[in-house]
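Lecture notes, part 5. Sequence design as translation. It can be helpful to think of inverse folding as translation between two languages: the language of shapes and the language of residues. The source text, in structure tokens, appears below.
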């Protein structure tokens, strides 16, 4: 049964290689935010803030650098999913993302239930910039 140590070694090597790749200079900068249904920032990367806007299911998440200057996220990719700010699970639903037209350092997020009706919900957002 020599396969188990080889498999484990390959798994460890893959995990270490992935971590080294993600941390290498010149790689994407990733920003994260966990936002409560009321629009308050729960946790995430340094510089992430949030505010409830427009309607109960519409959010804007903004990003600033360590000096408080806006981070331009227009050329980045956005990924959001419904998720809680602590323990438990959200009811099923979806979150959509878009570039914020009025702020270069912000992402627009809308949350919906499974019937596609707008609903206020907490969510997790990841922004990856080149």
């Amino acid at each position: 049964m020599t396969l188990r140590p080889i498999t484990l070694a390959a798994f460890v090597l893959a995990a270490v290689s992935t971590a080294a790749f993600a941390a290498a200079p010149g790689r994407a900068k990733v920003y994260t935010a966990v936002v409560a249904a009321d629009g308050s920032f729960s946790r995430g990367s340094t510089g992430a803030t949030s505010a409830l806007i427009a309607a109960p299911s519409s959010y804007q998440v903004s990003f600033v650098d360590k000096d408080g200057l806006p981070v331009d996220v227009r050329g980045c990719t956005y990924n959001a999913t419904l998720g809680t700010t602590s323990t438990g699970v959200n009811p099923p639903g979806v979150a959509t993302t878009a570039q914020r037209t009025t702020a270069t350092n912000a992402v627009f997020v809308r949350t919906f239930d499974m019937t596609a009706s707008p609903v206020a919900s907490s969510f997790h957002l990841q922004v990856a910039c080149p």
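The translated text above is only one of many valid answers, since several sequences can fold into similar shapes. Strands lie at 29-35, 41-44, 48-52, 58-63, 77-82, 93-99, 106-113, 123-129.
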